[in-house]
Specification:
This protein is of the alpha+beta class. The protein contains 29 helices and 26 strands.
């Protein structure tokens, strides 16, 4: 499609400008000015300033490579009789060149050695003062040589000068992007995901091709005519450059050191909408705990694809407990403070592009989030949309499906499953031993094969072991009254140590199979409940129950000292209430003797009747209660903690936790997740009354549709909404903006409304502005290039696949896949060649996770526009793969 061609050209252009600077230091005189040639007669001061400004960006280890090359060059230049000069200069000693020096071959060779050595000496100057001195010396020593070599007038009658020589070199470098445009995209992306040395073999070919393009330019006809007159051509110059490098810098280490430094000297960091840098010293980025900031990197004045480059590089944090970068989004950890983050290539922070310090400060309590608005009816479908951002290359190991396994691998998986079952048997009596058994089983099987089912089983086993490891034995809990318990600091400390050790063993094993980690947790079970009498909305006396827990702030502070985060919870027959680790870390400034209390109390069900009736009318759905109505609270002294996690038992098939607001409205909690049969959990933002309900909704036009069950299920989660009260329009296409809004709901992510729009075609007055901005900040979308998102274009199946893969990555699930794995997942489909390069990994991951399937047994239809029904089915499969809803 035309849009795809434009997009690929845009990506390649950006990468090419980057590569041009990396590769072009091997030519005779490296003079740069943001990719443009200097004007005629460039000043020595200007050249020195341009080259000198990169030196602060050279690492000490790289300076050693430069010094080594400089030492070799000095030795070579000091010995004109060195045999090495033969390979460098002899190809240049044509009969025409000798004739310009009166037939004196020795004089010609001596002059050319001085020319080549002087240019290279400029290149390897260690500081600005020496650089200026060498530039002066170079011009003084070689002006007569150049005049001797090029004794002719230009077309305008003026004399040929050294500037034509310099400008041709610059023009050759400017042609390198055009040359690289003709290369395969894998090579271009490898510069970010691999390292410079992987492309050294291509340096000579690219340099030669660039020279040939420069020679075709009429602006350099005079210089090319001068070259021809002395018997030189593009190959002659290219061979001379390579021969000199082979002697003084055979591994191209010095050349690459200067190339990296130049890239760093142009690199700028984009934090949301603010640009920082360039700077040789780490930049400073402030952030409040709990916030996220989207990151971009502009290299060599190429800001348009800053978000793409940020996804292709790797990020390393000095302390992930303070801050880290995931999917080009800056996130905070459990601690406040400062840490250094480095953007780099090839898993080596020393091969850095830019660095910045993150200063994390504590966040104030957040207000409750309002309920989301429904999607409006679908607008008419515009033409197909250009592609989205490619996923970066990822490591080779990956889970497999049972059909891919050899007999030996199948036996290894069975042994691992048996080991996991044995670990479960130890969970109650010896949770740490169970965790160690799980770890060993998963470490062993990861060396052979990992299936997705085994991965899910491992996660389930890990969760059950952690639940037991985190429970304080009843004998260490002081029951002060029915339904009330208190715990001393010593008990919490002992249990925290066991929970940490258990979590460490579990997470080591989970990491081996690519599963999300488990957080340490403490659970205080209060089995005795306090029965009380309350008056319901109808004035009737009803029996309700409740439970509470108290401890000291000093006891909880110790739980946050280890650098990880521990959740502490109160378990009652009504459910389990957790104070999240992030809140524990925020107790540092609280008095040690402050009392921390957890309370969970049942309230009359009739108190929720009005809210349920209002919600049923507003949403056009049927609502059935699926649990008791619970009022909970966590307090530190007299201050209420707003953020918490709650687990509630329920009855029914498709539950959703909801908040019962005081004004008679109902707010669905979109991050409701199944954790056990009959138990759901959610992260809450604000204390209030909560319960589990079941929403039910159907549409008249899906009665016999193939996707009916999925549409009704997702309507019950308030994701699938009709174009009218009674119609869903399952076969209509869905726009990019509509799918993004759906995806945001599925992931329970907030919309965002920044003052400045990220995309030029997504204005603030559009209904989808907040959804698109929220998805961009979450790292789910990066536009279609040229600062555009194409929100009202119909989304294609391959675009959905890429967004789904990013959603899995964001949720912490395994998204690594090898090149062989990609080919294996795509091999059954006859139209796989229609799949865009940037979508191959995302599509393969989505197929492997059983989220996207072919439209037929042997066709993917990657370029086809997705229907509303397909989108809903795919999003339900995502929830299954992510463990949010049961299979």
């Amino acid at each position: 499609m035309p849009g795809q061609k434009i997009f690929f050209k845009h990506i390649r252009k950006c990468l090419c400008f980057f590569l041009a600077f990396c590769l072009s230091f091997g030519t005779v005189l490296p003079i740069f000015n943001q990719g443009k040639a200097f004007a005629i007669d460039p000043s020595i001061e200007g050249i020195a300033a341009e080259l000198g400004r990169i030196y602060p960006y050279i690492d000490q280890s790289d300076k050693a490579y430069i010094q080594e090359a400089r030492t070799k060059l000095q030795a070579l230049a000091g010995n004109p009789d060195d045999i090495g000069w033969n390979s460098i200069i002899d190809p240049l000693l044509t009969e025409e060149v000798k004739g310009r020096f009166g037939g004196d071959a020795a004089a010609a060779k001596s002059a050319l050695i001085t020319l080549a050595a002087g240019a290279a000496a400029i290149y390897y100057s260690p500081d600005l003062q020496e650089l200026t001195s060498r530039l002066d010396a170079f011009k003084a020593q070689n002006t007569n040589t150049v005049k001797t070599l090029f004794k002719f007038k230009k077309a305008d009658g003026s004399d040929f000068t050294v500037n034509e020589y310099l400008n041709f070199i610059l023009a050759s470098r400017e042609k390198i992007p055009d040359v690289i445009l003709e290369s395969d995209l894998d090579t271009l992306i490898s510069i970010f995901s691999g390292n410079y040395h992987e492309i050294k073999d291509k340096l000579f070919d690219w340099s030669l091709a660039a020279m040939r393009k420069a020679m075709d330019d009429p602006l350099h006809s005079a210089f090319c005519g001068g070259l021809a007159a002395i018997g030189w051509n593009d190959s002659t110059l290219a061979e001379q450059q390579r021969a000199l490098s082979d002697i003084i810098d055979p591994q191209r280490n010095a050349e690459l050191a200067l190339a990296k430094a130049y890239v760093r000297s142009e690199a700028r960091l984009k934090v949301d909408t603010q640009w920082l840098g360039p700077s040789p010293d780490p930049l400073n980025v402030p952030i409040t705990q709990g916030q996220t900031k989207s990151l971009g990197i502009s290299v060599l004045n190429q800001p348009a694809l800053a978000s793409i480059i940020a996804r292709l590089v790797q990020w390393t944090s000095g302390n992930t407990s303070i801050a880290f970068v995931e999917n080009a989004v800056l996130k905070t950890g459990s601690q406040t403070g400062s840490t250094l983050i480095t953007a780099h290539r090839n898993g080596a922070p020393a091969d850095w592009i830019l660095k910045f310090n993150v200063n994390v400060t504590a966040a104030p309590p957040s207000p409750p989030s309002p309920p989301g608005e429904p999607l409006p009816p679908s607008p008419p479908s515009p033409p197909p949309t250009p592609p989205t951002t490619p996923l970066p290359p990822i490591p080779p190991s990956e889970p497999v499906t049972p059909g891919d396994l050899t007999a030996e691998q199948q036996q290894a998986v069975r042994q691992a499953q048996q080991a996991l079952n044995e670990a479960l048997n130890l969970a109650v009596t010896n949770p740490l031993g169970a965790a160690q058994a799980l770890n060993q089983a998963l470490q062993n099987v990861s060396q052979v094969a990992v299936t997705l089912d085994l991965q899910k089983q491992a996660m389930k086993t890990a969760s059950l072991i952690m639940q037991n490891a985190g429970k304080i034995p009843p004998e260490n809990v002081v029951i002060t009254a029915p339904g009330s318990a208190s715990v001393d600091a010593g008990t919490l400390s002992q249990q925290a140590q066991l929970a940490r050790q258990t979590a460490t063993a579990i997470n080591s094993g989970l990491a081996a199979v690519g599963a999300p980690p488990q957080r340490p947790q403490l659970v205080v079970p209060v089995t005795e409940t306090q029965k009380t009498t309350a008056i319901d909305a109808q004035g009737r006396s009803v029996a309700v129950e409740g439970a509470s827990l108290s401890t000291s702030a000093a006891a909880l502070k110790g739980l946050a000292d280890e650098g990880d985060t521990i959740d502490i919870g109160l378990e009652t027959p009504l459910g389990t209430l957790f104070l999240k680790g992030e809140e524990l870390a925020g107790l540092a400034g609280v008095d040690d003797d402050a009392v921390v209390t957890f309370s969970m109390n049942e309230i009359p069900a009739s108190d929720a009747d009005t809210a349920l009736e209002n919600a049923a009318d507003a949403l056009g759905v049927d609502i059935s209660p699926a649990s008791k109505v619970i009022d909970f609270e966590i307090k530190v002294g007299d201050q209420t903690v707003s953020r918490a996690r709650i687990l509630i038992p329920f009855v029914g098939g498709n539950p959703m936790i909801v908040r019962i607001n005081d004004d008679g409205t109902l707010t669905p909690v979109m991050n409701t997740k199944f954790v056990d049969p009959g138990v759901v959990q959610a992260d809450l933002n604000g204390t209030s009354k909560y319960m589990v309900v079941e929403f039910k909704k159907t549409f008249s036009d899906i009665a016999v549709h193939w996707a009916r069950q999925d549409i009704e299920f997702m309507a019950g989660r308030l994701v699938a909404r009709g174009v009218t009260t009674d119609l869903f329009a399952p076969n209509d296409t869905i726009t990019r903006a509509q799918f993004v809004a759906l995806l945001l709901r599925v992931l329970a992510l907030s919309e965002s409304s920044p003052g400045t729009a990220t995309f030029s075609d997504v204005s603030k007055d559009k209904w989808y502005y907040g959804a698109v901005e929220g998805a961009y900040r979450a790292g789910l979308i990066y536009g279609v290039g040229d600062n555009m998102f194409a929100p009202e274009a119909s989304i294609t199946r391959q675009e959905m696949a890429v967004m789904i893969a990013r959603a899995l990555e964001k949720a912490g699930f395994y998204t690594q896949i090898s090149t062989a794995g990609i080919e294996k997942r795509l091999e059954p489909y006859s139209d796989k060649e229609n799949l865009a390069f940037w979508a191959r990994a995302g599509m393969a991951v989505s197929i492997r996770s059983e989220i996207i399937k072919g439209r037929t047994l042997d066709t993917l239809a990657p370029l086809a526009n997705a229907t509303r029904a397909e989108a809903i089915v795919i999003l339900r499969r995502y929830l299954k793969a992510a463990g949010v809803v049961p299979n």
